[in-house]
Every structure is written in structure tokens, then in C-alpha cells.
Model the fold of this input.
Amino acid sequence: MILQNVVWTISLVGMGLVALGFVYVIRQAGKPADDAATRKAAHTSNLLRRWLFGSLLVIFVGGTYATLHRFPIAPQHTPLDIHQVVDVVGQQWSWQITPDTVHAGSPVEFRVTSKDVNHDFAVYAPDGRIATQTQAMPGFTNKIVYTFTQPGTYKVMCLEYCGIGHAPMTSEIKVVAASGG
Amino acid sequence: MAALTMYPDSERLDGGNRVAFNLYIITAVTLFVLMMLLGLTMRLGQATWLSVPPDLFYRILSMHGAGMVGTAALATTAVMWFFLRKYVRLHLWAFLTNYVMFMLGALCIIFAIFVDGYGALWTFLYPLPVHGMGLWSPNAAALFMLGYLLIGVGMLVFYLDAAAGIIRVHGNLGRALGLQWLFRGTIDPDHPKAVVASTMVVIANTLGILAGAVVLVMGLVNIYYPEMALNALVAKNLIYWFGHMYINATIYMGVIAVYELLARYSGKPYPISRPFLWSWAVSTLFVIIVFPHHLMMDYAEPPWLVVMGQVVSWGAGFPVFLVTVYGALTNIYRSNMRWTMPSRLLILSMFGWAAGIVPAILDGTVRINLVMHNTQWVPGHFHFYLLLGVLPMALALMFHVIGQRADAPPNTAADRLGFPVYLIGGLIFVLAFLDAGHLSVARRMATHLPAWTATDEVGSIGAILVVLGMLYFAIRITVGLLKAPARGEPHGGTANTAG
Ligand code: HEM
Ligand SMILES: [Cu+2]
Done:
């Protein structure tokens, strides 16, 4: 499953659980309890809170480890020894991508910068979903390392608002099958 | 129990206080309606149901962003003032100075956008303001920034007055936050939550506004002395440090309404506790250092800052879920809850905050940001907790006050209809954004690809409902505030004490 769908599912489940919690409490909200029941409810509520704290802590630690133990961003200051290098320059309102054809199956290093304002170099896969992106900031060069798996025509869009020509600021990258070498 | 008096004397609005409060609130609800109409215009434009030329779209987007953020701050400042003045001495002139500066700043911004064509959005990301490419001049950008500075100065005046008042009563800001009770000691049960929250806002947002002032002044200098170029990465850090804290401060000011009002409607005491103090201490730190999550796709940003951005974004969920929202739910559970407009809105605000933070936290993850950054996922999550969180907090106080004038909590048939229209419209509207983000629809685009318009259409329908609901609220509140107070001034109406 692609990452966006995973995130969407987790969000729906998370928001749904929150909503269920609210519905449950709201249904109980108009039924005042006597003193004994109030004390019991306070006790249960404290217990539940600890339990919730514990689960969130597990998610926090586990999730942080899982998403960060391999830092998702390529090293920016050491040479990467990657054979396919693509230079990307954004400017109001076009992309200059050299070369604009790459091979699937082996990593590509994009070196992305801008001549004027901030842009964002986003690569859309043929299915219309974002595959990867980085900001194109004047004065800086950001390096993405990405390995295309599917050959096809990838659309490049600008994802940082850069003036009136922002939406039409698009381009293309052709990904061809691995060169059997 | 004094804390459960529905309309305590100490909250009485008379003379200048009443005028000031009415000015704030009537301005705020009017601006909310207008800004929502601009929002609807953009959504209809994206759905191609309305033709909105790109230059106009981006000016509307600039106005909507700056206008909504500013108005949310205006409304929630009134919330903070309304309650904080019971505990510390606040000067009316400071509160009014903030209002006047806000209006002057707003005029500059409106003029910059609609007369001078400014269209570099509420984030004025350097160096776009000086690269208008003929659409706007550097002067327009300067006027826009001047407007921000005026608003910021007004806010600082109010915060300094609040800080002085707090320090006079509590000695210093740390004690006002209750830091002395984090590990030991008996917490003073009368230590007001409103003071804790206000102190955090004063600390964090003063820092934020100062950062904003620095980058605004640097930007202004650069406009007239282009050879004094800024470092784009430093400027972006400062802008988001400011922007993040400024908009988040609205939540922390607004939530005071929940702390103060909820118990009156549930009839159950809502005492201060150690977890509460911890949650505010931690949130103070978190809100100050979480901003790098806006720069995750800037690979030039030092990695430790990016990691901090992710870890703190996740951590920020703890106080919200475990203390604020959980505490509110515990308070109403098996209570004698009276469902009227204020109480409905208070609970809605807790839901909007808790649910909206889920997609927000996910987006604060580097790996996820890689495919969600600057998609409509972002307006999806922040509209969730602004539209369904912050606004309901402020609206709850407004309805509470008009209830005070009428001597009973508002709950007419029209209210009972307006509320679900706003709620359902709001849910449709924000879920359409989130779904769009999941489908990789870019944010901040005047024209959408044909494949994207389905979510735009659904979002537009939700937005129409929200606008209708808000229009009704605005009229109801304005009329209610201007009505002569019920019999003398508000006493009466004690809360329903349980049992
Ligand atoms: C009927 C209600 C509303 C509608 C229809 C609406 C609509 C929109 C739309 C269409 C956008 C641009 C989305 C995009 O990037 O493609 C937007 C952005 C935004 N909205 Fe709203 N909105 C509403 C309420 C609010 C509220 C209540 C707030 C805050 C209190 C708010 C704050 C913002 C902000 C800060 C932005 C970002 C501006 C930017 O990207 O520079 N909106 N809204
Ligand atoms: Cu762009």
C-alpha cells in the first residue's frame, strides 16, 4: 500500500477513535451520578488515563524509532557516489532539469536549487501521487536520492507558492527501464 | 460553590469594558464571515464552479490567510482578557490599544492586497515579497509588512500589560505557571487555570512576535536596500517560528473559555491538578521549539532541528489528549450537563482540537512529510482545529455572554439548527481537504488538475454550510450583544449544582 493510503487510514482510525470517545461520553453526560458512583467513575477514569498514557508512550517511542532510525533524508554534505545525477533549477515559473531522462532500478541524485524565490520540486508518479519532493531554495542546493521502480512519465510540479505562475510551473521526467548493465 | 456561578459579578461587563468587548467581538464575527466568504470563493474557484482569475485568487488567499489568523487572534485575545481580568489587574487602555493597532494594521493589509495587488500570502516568505513579477510592487509588500508590525506591536502592548499584572499578583511568570508545584507541594486549589494559560501565551507569543518583528524589519530593510540580502533559510526559520506560535497562541488563549465555562454547564467542579500544570509547562516549551516541522523539506536545515521538529510534534499530542481533552471529557461524564449553545460549542472545540491534531502529528513526521508537505493535507488539519476548535472556543464565550444579557443560556430552535449546520458543514469541508491531501492535491493553487476537482466540489458544499452557520451565529451574537442587558446587570442564573 502506498504511504499516502497508510497515512489516510491511520488518520481516519485515529479521528474515528476520538469521535467514538466523544460520543460515548456525551451520551453519559446528562446522567448525573451519586457520590459513590462519582468516586468510582473518577477512579476508573484515572486508571484509563494511565493506560492511555502507556499506549501513547509505546506508539511514541516505537513510532519515533521506526521512522527515524534510518534518517529519511540523504546526507547533504558528503559526496554520495551515485551515478545518475540530475541538476534541477527552479525559477519563476519554469524548471530546468538536466538530464530529464533517468533509468529505473538504480538511485538518482537530484540536486535542487532556485534562481529567484522558494519553489518546491515535487515528483508525481504516473498514478498521480507524489513520489518525493524537496524545497528549491535560493542560495542552497538540496539533494534527494530516489530510486524509481516504475518506468513512465513523471510529472514535476511546484509545491511552494511562487507567484502568479505557480500552478502552471510544471515539467516532466522520463523514467526508462533499467539499462541492463 | 463560587466557581460554579453561571454569571459571576466579577465577569460583569460595564461601561468601557462592555464597549471594548463588543468592539472586539462584533469586529471578529464580521471578519470571520467575510473571510469565510473569501475562503468559499477560493474553494468554488478550485472546483471550477466559479471563475476566479489566478491573480485575484492569490490576493484572496493572502487576505484569507492573514485575515483569518489575525481575526482568530483578535477573538481569542478577547477570551483571555475576559477571564484574566478577574485575577490580575489589566488596563483597559492596553486592551483597546491592541484593538486600534489591529484595525490600523488591518487597513494597511487590506490596502496592500486589494489596491496594491500584494499576493505573497500571509507567510510573506522571503524573497517572494520582492519578486512580485509585476503583480505587486515592493511598496505593496512593505505596506503589508508594516500592517503586520502594527498588529504585532498592539499585541505586545496587551501582553506586557498582562505580564505586569500577572507578576504583580504571582511574583514571577514561573510561579504563575505553577512550576513550583510540578514535583511537590500542595497545589493552591484557587490558582486560576486562566492565569496558567495566559502566562504560557505571554511567554511564547512574545518570543514569536519578536522573531516576527526581526524578520519583518529585515525584510523592510531589504526592500529599500536590496544589496542587504537575507539568508533565505534563516528568514524562513524566523517566519515559521513566528507564524507557528502566533496561530497556536489562539488555541491556548481560546481554551481558557473551556477551563472557565465548562464546569458551570456541567455542574461538576473542574479543579486544577498536577497533570494540568505539567501539561502547560511542557506545552510552553513545545510550542516554542516545534516550528522546524515546517522546514522538513528544506534539506539544508540542520538535521537535529528536523528531528526535534518531529519528536516535539509527536510529543505535543500528550498534553492535548491526556490532559486538556481527557480532563474536559471527565468533567462532563455523568454530570448534570445542560446542552445549550455555549456547552455544545465547548465540547465541539475539544473534539476539533483532539481530532485535528491526529493528521497534524502525522504530517509532522519526516517520512510522511515527504509526500504530504504542501498538499491540501495541511489546510485539512489546520482548518480542523481552527474551524472546529478555536472558533467554537471563542463562539462559546460569545454565546455565554449573550446568555448573560438574556439571563439564560441561549438555546433557541434556530440555535439548535445552526449548530449542526456548522458542525456537519465543517466536517465535510475539512475531510474533503484531508482526502485531497491523501490524493496529492497541492495546496495554494488557483487552478487544479481535472483529476482533483471531485474533492474541491465536496469541500465547496461543506464550505457553503459553514458560511451559513457562521452567518447565523454572527447575526445572533451581534444582536445579542447590542441588546440592553436584562434587568439591571447580570446576577441571577446560578449554575445547576449537581445532586
Ligand atoms: C467557511 C470556512 C472556510 C473556508 C471555505 C476556507 C477556505 C480556505 C481555502 C480554500 C484555503 C486555501 C486552500 C489551499 O491552499 O488550496 C484556505 C487557506 C487557509 N485558511 Fe481557510 N477557510 C475557512 C475557514 C478558515 C478559518 C476559520 C481559519 C482560521 C481561523 C482559516 C485559516 C486559513 C489559513 C491560515 C489558510 C492558509 C493560507 C495560505 O495557504 O497562505 N480558514 N482556506
Ligand atoms: Cu511555485
Notes: Residues 488-499 of chain B have pLDDT under 50 and may be disordered. Residues 372 and 437 of chain B are 7 Å apart (CA to CA).
